[in-house]
Amino acid sequence: MTSHSHEYRSLILTFLLFLVSLLLFFGLNGRTFPNMTLWVPISLYSLVGVGYVISLVIGLRSKNNFIKIFSLLANLMLLLPLVIWVYLLLLANGISEP
């Protein structure tokens, strides 16, 4: 790998995490997995959120200003709805459990 391909790791990781979060959102539902507890999607979405934070840190350590700005904006714009979604799942899990 050349040094130029190392600069784009953050962008590639952000794109892959976006695809994984879309796959989780549309793939993990009650019709596909009827006996699944809410802790499974909560933990998977939390792992994706940690991945976004790692991608943000990698992007901000880059020397390219475009990658820094794009990584900051993209990761924060994708992380914010994910955090809200995990919070709502935790709230639903707290309401549904005795």
Description:
The protein has helices at residues 3-7, 9-27, 39-60, 65-96. With 98 residues, it is mainly α. α2 packs parallel to α4 (65-96). The termini are far apart.
Q: What is this structure, in a nutshell?
A:
This protein has 98 residues and is mainly alpha-helical.
Descriptive keywords:
98 residues; mainly alpha; 4 helices; 80% helix; 0% strand; elongated
Unreliable sequence segments: none
Distance between the termini: 53 Å
What share of residues is helical?
Answer: over 70%
Helices, by number, come to: 4
- How many β strands by DSSP? 0
| Rg calculated over all Cα atoms | 16 Å
Principal-axes shape call = elongated
Q: Provide the succession of SSEs.
A: HHHH
Largest beta sheet, briefly? none
Question: What integer is the average pLDDT?
Answer: 90
Backbone structural class: mainly alpha
Q: Beta-sheet strand percentage?
A: under 5%
Secondary structure elements and pairings:
Blueprint lengths: L2 H5 L1 H19 L11 H22 L4 H32 L2
Helix pairs in contact: 2-3, 2-4, 3-4
